[in-house]
Amino acid sequence: MVSGCGGSSDSENPVGSTPLGYAFQSSSVCADADLNGVCSDLEKRIANVSMHAQQRQYGGAVLTAPPGLELVSPFTTLIHSEMMFNPTVSNDVEQAKASLQSKLGDHVGINFSVLDSTYGAEDLSNLLLKSLKKAQSDGKQSSYTNIAHALDLMIEHKTLDLSNIDVAGTVSRHLQIEDSLVVRGSQSVPQLSGAKSIALNPASSQIVFLTADDRVMQIDSVVRNKSVTLIGDAEPKANSGSMSIRSHDDYYDHDDDDDDDYGSGSGGGEVAVESNEIVQLVPALNGIHAYKIYKPTAYVSSTASDVCNNQGSNGVFLAELSSSSNNAGAKAFAIDTYSSRSGGALPPVIKPTPAVDPSASQSCINDNFASVFPLLQSGSLLAVKGTSSSVGSQELKSLSADTLVMKSLRHSLKASSPQILPSFDESEVLVIYGNQPLSSNVASEVVNTENLSTKMTIDKFNLKTANIVAHQQILLALEDNKLEWISNSTQQKELGGLGVDAAIRHMATSVDGTVSAITTENSLYIVDNKKRAVLVQQALISRALNSLYVLEDKVIALTSSGADYYQFRNISGPALKVGSQLVTKELLKKWEDSGNSNWNSTNLGYILSQTGTASEISDKFKNVNLSFSPTNATTSSGISGVHVSGLERGEWLTFYKGL
């Protein structure tokens, strides 16, 4: 199975002095890509751990480090906490170290300027480790906010030693808001226009897409001070007659009449085609490799092939997500939801350098693949493939995720182009036919992914879409603007239902199956599949959605020009930091629409109370003061930024956030 190492010890690659006496070195390091405080089984598949937030657990302590550091220690834990929860440091390591030096280091005799690359004095490290253990044992919030609370106490008492401090009895200034407030905003991503393929890597929480001009780009959806990063590079063409992928790319060479690839084809009676193209890219869980599907642009064949062939230029290739040379000219872009424009235009994209031939380690060469669906946790891919039985007929085939060997199992599809929707645990797949006019009377079915046999058909012909969700249920989206939960069994017992405000457009479910998101023409509904109830209903930021994803703490909705995000969990930190996240163009427009807006100085608590937020939440932000810019603005559209002011660790701070 293509995966990472499943965690590593940074003692294997020490930075600075070799730490021989640090007990925590015996624990392994893993990626906490979604910042939920736990390294999941999926996250343990990530190969390059240091690209993400890192974590190790030792003796009850949770130790963390920000992306890019090569060690995880008690001191990197403090640096990471300052980066995450201090709104003035902009998620910057150097700013976080400087802040900690003045607030703590100068008082306890440590030099934070070197503690992102060295382990520090052993005695002080062990003392801090004990305090971080106490932070978790006595803390009442999530692991990250427990660390932040402990750091506040260290700064207040000017010590690393919390043994005589009442951690549990001291009220934390950090909020922990779940399911009762939404942080929302937008990011312009013009490269999504005409995207050929969009997929979520559930291990890294990154959305990987293939642009219209064959560049691979990634959206890092984790909310930090700078929450979204785009990394762009060019995707090469397949090399005919081999398993490698060639560096031929029309993005760089528009005069290629003499350079077209000629596939030697597969099966009998093929006519050579002038070129092929990549049509889909599915990221592997390790974040390094991807499954790339190539099809001919002008294919002619009298016989379809039902096997993987020895030569050809089309099929499924397992190769590097991007060659390292492609990134040389790439530029990373980030949204800063605290101090720069949310939803602003990206800087011009720098054209990456031409690709070097990345060798495909495995392949299944076949001209007849339409698409693949990852079942990577179970070690396979589910492919939709044309068959040799009749023109236009399709079937499901299973391929090994490691070797791309095509298994003999097959499942004939009753109509072309159905919705293929794997269950959250990948044990089953929904095949929904009713979305096509010619298949409106064909019963949708649940297929077992292990043997590709039909488990049952669904007795609903007004079905628009559906998801298999947790607790042995199927969530149905019906044409009469209703949601319905039924048992995932042949009895199909109705368990609950909800009405929505308009026709249902999209549905997506979290990787654990507990939360689903549904969009209508007007609204986003986030529902709890155990309670069968709405957690959050929000007006859509954008209506022309192309795809929808449910992550650990947020919903991401993609359009042809950008990404909208709706964070509904893990909203944590001091009121000034959380308040900075909440102030968006969308919130100001909602306040304006309520009829009670004015563009003089106000406080965030008042705005939230006027826009439907319950008082027990809005009251927490009464001391977050806002002053809008320019001062002569008369509408929300005229607001270009806001000065956010409030107390931060007893100090009055003001900073500017562009909108």
Strands, helices and their partners?
Layout: E1 30-31, E2 54-58, E3 61-65, H1 74-85, H2 93-108, H3 122-138, H4 143-157, E4 174-177, E5 183-188, E6 197-201, E7 206-210, E8 215-220, E9 226-234, E10 237-238, E11 245-246, E12 276-283, E13 289-296, E14 315-320, E15 333-336, E16 362-365, E17 369-375, E18 380-386, E19 394-400, E20 406-412, E21 419-422, E22 428-432, E23 444-448, E24 454-458, E25 463-469, E26 473-478, E27 482-487, E28 494-499, E29 504-509, E30 515-520, E31 523-528, E32 533-539, E33 545-550, E34 554-559, E35 562-567, E36 571-574, H5 575-582, H6 585-593, E37 602-603, H7 604-610, H8 615-618, E38 625-629, E39 641-648, E40 651-658
Antiparallel strand pairs: 1-2, 2-3, 4-36, 5-35, 6-7, 7-8, 8-9, 9-15, 10-11, 12-13, 13-14, 14-16, 17-18, 18-19, 19-20, 21-22, 22-23, 23-24, 25-26, 26-27, 27-28, 29-30, 30-31, 31-32, 33-34, 34-35, 37-38, 38-39, 39-40
Helix pairs in contact: 1-2, 1-4, 3-4
Q: How would you portray this structure in words?
A:
Helices cover 13% and strands 34% of the residues. Among the domains are: 23-172, no CATH class; 190-367, no CATH class; 572-658, no CATH class. The protein has 659 residues and is mainly β. Helix 1 (74-85) packs across helix 2, helix 1 (74-85) packs across helix 4 and helix 3 packs across helix 4 (143-157). The two termini are 44 Å apart. The longest helix has 17 residues, at 122-138. It is built from eight helices and 40 strands. The radius of gyration is 26 Å and the shape is globular. A five-stranded antiparallel sheet has the order 6-7-8-9-15, with no helix packed on it. Residues 252-262 have a biased composition (Acidic residues). Residues 237-269 are annotated as: Disordered.
